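Need tokens for this chain, all 676 residues.
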Amino acid sequence: MKKTTKKLFSLFLAMLMLLSCISASAAAQGGEEIITTQVIIWDDLPAMEPGRECTFTESFYARFVPEKSGLYELYMLNASGAAYGGSVIVDDEYETGSLTKDDVEFYFEKYLIELESGKTYNISCHALDEDYDAAVKISLVCDHGNKKSEAAVMPSCGVGVTAGVYCPDCKRWLSGHEAVFKSHTDKNGDRVCDVCKKESADASGYTGNGKNASYKLYSDGELVISGTGAVGSFGIYVGDDKKLSFNDKVKKITVKEGIITLSFAAFYDFESLESVSLPESLEVIDSYVFNSYYLVELYIPSNVKTIEEPDTINNAYFEKFDVSPENKVFSSQDGILFSKDKKVLYAYPGGKTEKSYTVPDGVECLADYAFFSCYDLETLKLPQSLSLVGSYAFSDAVLENAETDGFVKYVDFVAVGFDDSDEENLPDILNVREGTRIIAAEAFWGADFDGIILPEGLVSISSRAFEFTSMYNLVIPESVRYIEDGAFNYCSMGNLVVPKSVEYFGDCCFRYMEAIAFLNPSCEIGNLRVGFDFAEDFSSPLKLFVGYSGSTAEKTAKENDSMFAALDEGHEHIYFCTEYVRATCTEDGRTVYSCPCGKSEPRDETVEKGHSWNEESVDSDGTIHYECSVCGETEEEKCDCVCHKGGIYKIFYKLIRVFWKLLKVKRFCDCSIEHY
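Here are the structure tokens for all 676 residues:
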């Protein structure tokens, strides 16, 4: 905000100068008197001397002609301003703050500006608090050994990036970082000619793992990276705030042997990138390394051990992953990225044009975003070996074989979404259809039911499957093996019994949870907490863990300073709500409380019977429609007022209406219809 204000002020001064000159010229041509009091004539202003402080109360204008080229510091106290060199505003602020002078606290700012000897620079400042003196001073910081930046005029062949001059004393690059593209002849057959080697400065500018990796960009758009260690992000800043701006020129990237890591978002801004060549030394490809719709295939070398979020490479135009047969972690089949043992499908390229695909038998997991942006894919057949589905596995995938039972959407045997478009007909208790093996991420996000009945044969519940869901109870079938991290995040229910079949129950923050029981003594349990106001910062350990002595449930309770109740022989029964049927206007409700050991106590829930009728609408013939605000049942009745009766009553009513009209009497019927 401060920089914006200063730049606006500087722009205002520049406009004022221009308008004044135009006015003066026009006046001279017309023979009118020229009023010079409104014009800043910079040549007539006092000259600033290096290191000498100038004070002022309102505005201050001066010129400065440096004797030496180099780096200068422009210091302003209780003031804001800028320095001009021709039409260029020198604005390289590097420090701001406040200091106390004569018991008064003042704002100050400092600039580092690169100035050339003999050139005139104009200094303009404006006092921030006119009740106190302001001050401005310009001082030479470093003359860089009297070297001059020659980036723009360097007699180079122009291949790559001319880097200007780097001052080891100032620890900063000087001006001149510009990409220059010209053709040249390479007499040795190398990509770099003798001129480049001798007169083009090193353009490293980033390091990784403490080891240097350097780059060079060629006129045909190939970026060659060599060295050792990690390649950092090319959204880099060389020096303080000069960003290299050749990203849109890069069409091909060649990474030489010795590089072991492509760091987060290394080439994210390279939107024109068409091809990539990676070395066998590479071990890690971090997330968001590539982001180009022109890159349609990628070769994964033999030593790559980690690909963080493969979906960040994939997009709607990406067509193929190719993996070295020697790679021990990853493999490819038909251009699709798998784990080496083919148990995990990491990424199905979004640019593949096939209309249908059958996931190979033996695949146990679809990774996060596995079928992201698969717009051409219409049908998908899943194997019975599949047990886990990652978050957003089918995000933006157009699957015409997705089915619905009216309330839940399915892809094969995976429940992928809750359909609440027909809110009026939603059941109190939702039955997930038989044959469902996996609940996908966010499948029942935000749903509100008395209960959700999961089918036998269900194998896993994915991350965030029941996030923000409200229900009185949920019975997890004995067939479930995995409950992923966040499956019940902020789910509103009082307690939960986790059956013996569950091997993993991930991190989760519930709402209002009182107790959770684990019947598998060796179940791997994550960090379970109770959240308030839907934020992890307002959460506390779960109150009660139930399980067997020596189990992971007891260990987790101790680690979280929570209470623990044992289910050992002779234990005192602990009852959980395992079934709930809400009472209606005509029938009693029913709640079943069960101890995890199997003992249950059904309890009837009774309420005073009877509907609570609300009048919804009235027809012109006096038919009144009612709806029960509790259960939604409807009924109707006919208004028995004389105005709605036939025969002699109708004749009598017509006669009396004549007198009402003459007397201008308005009358409302019992059914609320207005009559005269």
